[in-house]
Structures are given as C-alpha cells and as structure tokens.
Design a protein that fits this description.
Protein phosphatase 1 regulatory subunit SDS22, putative, repeat, 9 helices, disordered N terminus
Length: 411
C-alpha cells in the first residue's frame, strides 16, 4: 500500500478517523487482510476471486506496492484516534496490525463481544476505549497498562469482577445489570477516580471501596442504604438521584472532601433527615428537589436515559461555579433587595410573596420551600447552594433569626 490510498481515504492532516472515513478505511483494509492470507498465485488471479482485493485498485503504482511493507506505510501516518460507531462490526482483528499507534478508539454501537474485542487490547498505547452499546456480558479484558478511560455502558455486565487495568481513572458502566460490588476487586483499580454506575440494580453502596474515588455516580439504582463511606476519603461528588433512599445515615467525618451531593427524587420524607449530613464539613452543594417532603403536585419524573452526559455537563458546570459564585451571590442579593422594596408586607418580603399573578397555592408552596431551605441551612450552615439557587446573605440572616425564635420558645 502506498500513501496515496490513505491520503484518498483520510487526509493526513486530520490524524483522526471519523465514522464514515473509518468505515471506508476498515473496509479496504479488511479486503487487504484477506489478500495477505492468500498465496502469490492467488494474488495473480484476484479478478476471479471475490474475497480478494485486486492490487491494481489500491493505487496507480502497482509495481511499488509491497504487502510486506504495508504495515510500515501505515505506521508512518501514526493515526492517534479512531471512531467506528454503529457499523455492526463483529471483527476488529485488523486494528493492532495496521493502527499500532492508536491512543483512543470508539467502537460503540457495534456487535462486539468479550471474545471478538480482544484484538483491541493488543494496541500497546491505548489510553481511552469506548465499547458502549455492544454485546458484553463480562467486563474482562487483558490488563492494558496505559488505559485511563474505559466505557462499557449499555451492555449486559453484571459485576466489576476481573476488571484489572493499573492506570484506569474513569470507568463507565452506566445502564448495565450490576447488582453489587465486591470489595475484594477494588485493589485492582488503584487509580480509579470516577466510577459511573447509573441505571443498574445496586441496593447498597457497600463494597464500593475504591479509596481513590473522587466522583461517584449511582443515580437510578435501587439503593436503600448507605454503607462503606468511611473508606471513600477522597470523594468530592456523589450522585444518588432517583433511588428509593429514605435514610441518610452512613456518612462519616472521613468524608470531609465531599462537596456535592445529589439526592433528587429519592424518598426522603422529613427535612430533619438532613441533620445527618452535619458530619460533612466540606459540603457546599445539595440537590434535594422532588423528595417526599418537598414534591410538587403533578411533577413528572424525568429519566436520565436521554442524558448520558449528565456527569460531564455537571462537572463543567461545577468548574465554572467557583469563579462565578461571588458574582452570582451579589446578583441574587441585589435582586432580593429590589424585590423587597416592591413588596407590601414584611412576611411577603421574607418569602418572595406579593406578586399579584401568584395563586394562594403557589404562595404557600413558596413559603414551605423557603421554610425547608432555612431548616436545612440551620443544619448545614456551610452550604453555598441548595438545588440550583445560591444561598444568599439574606437567607442566612433569616436562618439565624429562625434559630433565635426557636431558642426563645424552648426557654
């Protein structure tokens, strides 16, 4: 093969195989692969053999095309990224032979199994591998020493057993059939910082003992109890959205780094349950919307199924918040002051009521929401956000007054 072939299929300056181009290139190389398995005599009769790709169709320099030199020509290009999604692929044996320099490969939406995907593990430099939406029922692959990202979402995997990649940092097993995590497997992933297990069948967090974890996504499981968090000393973000969780017992003072907790649309029935989070000294953001104690009438459950990028979006959003938070606080306080000037009564000032367009029911709901916010803030005074709203200085003052009133009543 000469450079002419690859230049025709994929421009060199892109250094990346897109979906369409990857399909063309894999198709051509697949035919070449068949040719390399035939004798020179078979090569001379390629026009009568439909399984062999005629050499004169490769380029206009047939005499210079040497099959033995083919790998060298491809190596000269050193493609770094390949995307071949939704192509019904069942065989990728050609990848380690002709694309040895690949760093990232996306083979999502194909028909690969544990056995047929093995050639990918022979890529010596692979760093990121996506095998989402294939036919995996077992996550086992030979250890890949450079692999940092592994995507296996939307398969039929039942456990994390036999996943052993010493430098893996992110593991995506969303929407599989995982029922539990064996703590004896955790030592195999010593550098894991992000674990995504949305939409599985977990009933407890017990067993998730990856001490290096920073981000843990467990939305849409069947979790009813929180256990094992004393091990997760580096955890910063925890998503427990849409679980049948009613008890927040389980956190410890060792979770001092936890900054973000999402328990939206769980089954927490009493706002006092949040007192149990007082051990989380570093907690800054808490998402509570849609629980039993604050569910809105007619609120429809929203599925994360169409939002697989939730973790990425929220990470980006979280990164922006640090730089913008002070400005947002000032804006919120400014709005609050302007709003209070136009309200008629002191109570209306406190709860944002007084808008003539609001019904009594809406006003009552706003008042109850504010009361819940103030109670939670009294338990967790270090919070910066509750749901999407920043905690303002006005709210902090109202919280202090509420505590003083309660103390006076007790006396």
């Amino acid at each position: 093969m000469t450079r002419l072939l690859l230049e025709k299929v994929v421009p060199y300056e892109h250094k990346s195989l897109t979906l369409k181009k990857a399909g063309e290139c894999l198709g051509i190389l697949g035919k070449i692969w068949n040719l390399s398995e035939h004798s020179s005599a078979a090569a001379a009769t390629t026009t009568t053999n439909p399984n062999v790709f005629p050499l004169n169709e490769l380029c206009d320099k047939e005499s210079e095309c040497k099959l033995m030199d083919m790998e060298g020509y491809v190596d000269d290009y050193q493609y770094l990224h390949m995307e071949a999604k939704d192509m019904c692929l069942t065989d990728v044996t050609i990848l380690p032979k002709y694309f040895v320099w690949l760093l990232s490969v996306d083979l999502s939406g194909n028909l690969l199994t544990n056995e047929t995907s093995c050639p990918v593990t022979k890529l010596p430099n692979i760093v990121a591998l996506k095998l989402n939406r294939n036919n995996f029922n077992d996550p086992y692959m030979p250890p890949m020493k450079h692999l940092q990202y592994l995507g296996l979402n939307n398969n039929r995997i039942k456990s994390l057993h036999r996943i052993y990649h010493p430098n893996l940092e992110t593991l995506d097993l969303n929407y599989n059939h995982v029922r539990d995590v064996d703590p004896r497997d955790c030592w195999k992933l010593p550098k894991l910082t992000q674990l995504e297990l949305r939409g599985n069948l977990l009933q407890t967090t017990e067993g998730i003992q990856y001490q290096s974890l920073v981000n843990l996504y467990l939305a849409q499981n069947k979790i009813t109890e929180l256990r094992g968090f004393e091990i997760l000393i580096n955890l910063e973000r925890l998503h427990l959205r849409e679980n049948p969780l009613s008890d927040l017992t389980g956190f410890t003072k060792s979770n001092v780094k936890l900054k973000y907790l999402n328990v939206r649309k769980c089954e927490i029935g009493n706002v006092e349950e949040f007192k149990k989070l007082s051990v989380l000294a570093g907690l800054k953001e808490l998402v509570i919307k849609g629980n039993v104690f604050n569910a809105e009438p007619g609120e429809e459950a929203q599925s994360d199924e169409n939002n697989e990028n939730e973790s990425e979006n929220e990470e980006q959003d979280g990164g922006r918040r640090g730089a913008e938070e002070e400005q947002e606080v000032e804006e919120e306080e400014g709005k609050s002051k302007r709003k209070n000037k136009g309200n008629k009564t002191e109570n209306d000032d406190d709860y944002g009521v007084g808008d003539g367009d609001k019904t009594n029911e809406e006003s009552d709901m706003e008042e109850e929401e504010m009361e819940n916010r103030l109670k939670i803030l009294s338990y967790l005074p270090h919070l910066h956000r509750i749901d999407k709203r920043i905690v303002t200085e006005t709210e902090r003052q109202m919280m202090r007054e509420m505590i003083e009133d309660e103390e006076e009543e007790e006396e």
